[in-house]
Predict the 3D structure of the following.
Amino acid sequence: MAQAILVADDDPDILSIVSMSLETQGYTVYKATNGREAVDLAKQHHPDLVLMDMMMPIVSGYEAVTELKADATTRDITIIGLSAKAMATDMERATDVGIDGYITKPFRIAQVLTVVESYLHG
């Protein structure tokens, strides 16, 4: 069975490019455009990995990660943060809420695929 990845980003271009690239690599992809959708989809589908934009509407990525890591059914899901905020304090805040990894925007899709592979296939 294909591994599943949830991509959560409110930028439709990023959501589309990342999702299509992952699907091309054989992953099953779920898409969310805000943090609330991300939490709901993660609880419903329990993906192997989540790529989470940290700055999203309705529920931020930080809040979504906090909620997922607090829930026994989703806390073991690997979550990689995506953010244009590259300051050490931003990365520290993401780590504090439970992010497993962090990719700064702008990124090359090859970088995202490499990070995903490293977390899923060690």
